[in-house]
Structure formats: C-alpha cells, structure tokens
Amino acid sequence: MYKERLVLAKSSKWIPKILLEFHSSKIGGHSGFFRTYKRISSILYWEGMKSTIMEFIKGCEVCQENKHSTLKPAGLLQPLPIPTNVWADISIDFISGLSKAKGLDIIFVVVDRMTKYAHFFALSHPFTAKVVATLFIKVVVRLHGFPSSIVSDRDNFMSVFWS
After folding, report:
1. Which of 74, 81, 113, 122 could form a disulfide with 104 if both were Cys (CB 3.0 to 4.6 A apart)?
2. Full set of structural domains in the chain with CATH
C-alpha cells in the first residue's frame, strides 16, 4: 500500500484482468481513457499505468468500432467574392518547416487575390506580430495601400496583427 492505493508490479498478471473489469465490463462501459484511468488510479497504482491503460483502450475493438467524432462538423465552404480592384483583397500565409538559410526558416507570403502578384518575406522563428506588421506596412502598404480585406487561416494572429 502507498497513499491508500494498492501498488502492483509492472508485470503483474492481474493488470489485464483489472483493465477488462474497469473498462470492458458492464460497470466499466467502455468509458474511454480518462474515466478508466481515474477509476483505476483511485485504488491502484503500477509503474507505467497511464501508457498501459492508453494502449489497452487503443486496442479495444468495441471502442474503435463505435468511437464517435469529437470534432464539430465543418460548415459549407463559401466562395470568396471576386476582387474588383488590384491589391484591395489580399491573402496572407506563412510557409514554415523549411531548413534554415542565413538563420531564416519561415516565408511570409502576401498575395493579391486579383492579379496573383505576390510578395515574399523571410523571417526567423519565433517572430512577433509586431515584426510582421512592421514588415507588412513598410512594403505592402507603402507600395499598394491598405487592403479592404485579408484572407488568412490564422484568426488569432490576425486579431493581434491588426491591434
């Protein structure tokens, strides 16, 4: 016993039986990793317990066949309006995961949605919104003015960027 929990050896023959009882029985109800772990850990402990329970549940055929998606269903894609002016509607993105060249490993891309003309800026990770905003204003805004709309897949970054 340790802290009011029974301690088992990592190689105990009882561990598979305990997992079946706490997860696969009528009482266990195939309730997933977190609930199974909480139930077992309240009374038992063995070295590597989390990973053992995780592997057991990953191998549970009933759970894998009946697992439901936890993601919110995607909405219907909406087409973007067709741009009417050059550099009025732009899209921005970051290309990352590149090998370093002169200490730079990210490319910030700004594309005019009408002409497909693009500006590319090399950055190093980690970068701040202030660095990107300064670069954006010094080059894109100076040459083309402020755009009416910006399309990006980084919503959180955009709010900080415009602040």
Report:
1. 122
2. 6-66 (no CATH), 89-162 (3.30.420.10)
